[in-house]
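Entry type: protein chain
Record version: 2
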Amino acid sequence: MDRSDPEGAIAAAAQRCSNWGRWGDDDVRGTLNHLDDDARVRAAASVVDGRSFSLSLRFETDGPQKGWRRRFNPVHTMTDTGTDAEAGVQGFPHGIGGADDVIAMPLQCATQWDGLGHIFDRGRAWNGRRAGQVVTAAGDQVTGIETVADGFAGRGVLLDVGRHLGAGLGTPGELPDGFAVTADHLEATASAQGVTVQRGDVLVVRTGQLTRARRSTAAGTGWGDYAGGPAPGLSFTTADWLHGSEIAAVATDTWGFEVRPNEFDDAFQPLHQIAIPRIGLFLGEMWDPDALAEHCARTGRWSFLLVAAPLPVTGAVGSPVNPIAIT
């Protein structure tokens, strides 16, 4: 890989890894086509002890966002309160009272899915459509996240790369910022865990960066550069593996999924540029697999039933999600 030639590397990977036309010209589901009914039936067999784990960060004012491209943390406002009920000013009969609230937030400010309309490759969206014909001021008119609201239920596989590689790097349980996770790293982790990544799986990759950020917040120093700064993540060279493995989606515990800084001298999220518009792959970011990882390590089972439905916000190019893993 020539670090000085991101355009050439991206163009070559786009040709090798393209799924355009694979499921027809009208397709809006991309790699979720791999997660069919048979795959969901197989996923149910992953449930052994019935334990459930939320893989979501909290959606709160003290979240990780720092304002990059107008991304801010959730703003939570109460419109009815217990104080109002005690004061008897709500206008309800026979002593009943209640509370209501409103939240304002970017759809990608915490645990979320990137939809297929989120990233373009040289003016083209998923399946070769013109970007301007897909996403307009009215939203994603073709591949809005609502079109796949039923799709994210299947077999999840956790690859704890931070646990597998961290000790050898002097950072037990965690990968250092800037560490590029290659296909060989993914395969070696799967082998060490005794799990096989199968067609239609939703892959969850734990780097340990969120664990590190959580320590920082607990110490009172805040999230630091978790949102948008240096991070471990998937290498651009995993594009062929992500394509060939036929997984349905992939999520990480980092802000940007891929390694940051990126591996080229001048590039911004080059793996996104292949994964979303060319492969049709859904990307999850800022997931929290830590408690699940501890359970998987204790039981030796690294696959589970995963339900991670996006909010069906019409025309949205991404969505908050509360993924639930059932082991």
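Comment: Residues 6-71+107-326 form a domain with the Glucose Oxidase; domain 1 fold (CATH 3.50.30.50).
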